[in-house]
Amino acid sequence: MNAPLAGIRVIEVGTMLAGPYATMMLADLGAEVTKVEPPGGDISRRVGDSYFASLNRCKRSVCLDLTTAQGRRRLGELVEDAHALLVNLKPSAIRRLGLTYEDLRHSNERIVCVALTGYGLDGGDEPAFDYVVQAATGVAALTGDPDGPPTLPGYSSADNSTGLTAALGLLALLVSGRGGQVDVCLRDVMLSQLNYRASAYLNDGVAPRRHAFGAHSYYVPAQLFPTADGYLALFVTHDGFWRSFAAEAGVDGFATMAARVAHRDEVLAAVTTALAADTATGWEARLRPLGVPAAAVRTLPEALAEAPHMLVRAGDFTLVGSPIRLTGHTPTYTPPPPPH
């Protein structure tokens, strides 16, 4: 069977992570992605070959200087034959280079133009790198020990999330059959992902706060716990899970979610004492057959070793493959485009 996006032609004017990740996900599904690189190449090439490969496999690239009339003319030729254009630049640069739908509709009325920015096409040019946005939207303030400093997640959550959202917006307008502008920004995506945290504040006046070991604000116990060796993530969301866990761990009482929330400190103390009797991997092996959500904290190398089906070859690179499984489609992974 043909790839689901076979025949769909996407132009990417992107840099670093968010935009390239969006178009790579489309390329994995069969879209023909042409990456437009400036003279000297995408700046991410300077980070390292493996970094560039992790975001740009399955694409081809052209080198165009969009600040020149010749470069813009060549881009116009590409647009005439394309279904979508995704741009990951500052709003002023997007407009200056003529990369909005209003600019390009004269070349292709059905083109889908996606602007992926920090604060929106009308939000200004303030710097909006991933870590900056995590700080600005409350993510860093929500992360870490309550008695310690705010903490950033160990990966680029804002860039990756915004890339996926941009790809979704692109496909939504493409499916509609009409051209137009898609406007997606890092700030708004991260605020949207704070959904139940924001709702608790907006509707109930409950300001979010940090809990030790990353504890969930609603469910108890749902957090990391120290064990005899290593840390265990335990996520008890209903009374059935609790009954199974409590019977295995020898914990009495707190039969309902309401009781566990009302007596959070006592529950956490009892669970912490019980889990000290075995290792994290030991508890995982005991609890999973009971259907209790639990996992020992692993390093990335350990996690990759346990998921060999996710590792793919793209030329000389071993990469994490697409997480999307579709009936009748197996991605063909090709290496990233070479430098010009």
Q: What is the terminal separation in angstroms?
A: 33 Å
Radius of gyration: 24 Å
What is the CATH topology classification name of the largest domain?
Rossmann fold
| The CATH architecture of the largest domain | 3-Layer(aba) Sandwich
Structural class: alpha/beta
Number of helices: 14
Give the strand line-up of the largest sheet.
Answer: 3-2-1-4-5-6
Strand content: 15-25%
CATH class descriptor of the largest domain = Alpha Beta
Q: Sheet with the most strands?
A: 6 strands, parallel
| Count of the domains | 2
| Form type | elongated
Protein name: Crotonobetainyl-CoA:carnitine CoA-transferase CaiB-like acyl-CoA transferase
InterPro entries: CoA-transferase_III_domain, CoA-Trfase_fam_III, CoA-Trfase_III_dom3_sf, CoA-Trfase_III_dom_1_sf
GO molecular function, one term: CoA-transferase activity
Keywords: Transferase
Description:
This protein is of the alpha/beta class. It has 2 domains: 9-193 and 310-320, Rossmann fold (3-Layer(aba) Sandwich); 212-297, formyl-coa transferase, domain 3, CATH 3.30.1540.10. The protein has 14 helices and 11 strands. It has helices spanning 18-28, 49-56, 69-80, 91-96, 101-104, 130-136, 157-176, 186-193, 195-204, 239-249, 257-262, 264-275, 280-287, 300-305; strands at 9-13, 32-37, 59-63, 84-87, 112-117, 180-185, 222-226, 231-235, 294-296, 311-314, 317-320. It has a 6-stranded parallel beta sheet. It has a 3-stranded antiparallel beta sheet with strand order 7-8-9, with helices on one face. β10 and β11 (317-320) form a beta hairpin. α1 crosses α7 and α7 crosses α8 (186-193). It is elongated. It starts with 8 loop residues before the first strand and ends in a 20-residue tail after the last strand. The mean pLDDT is 96.
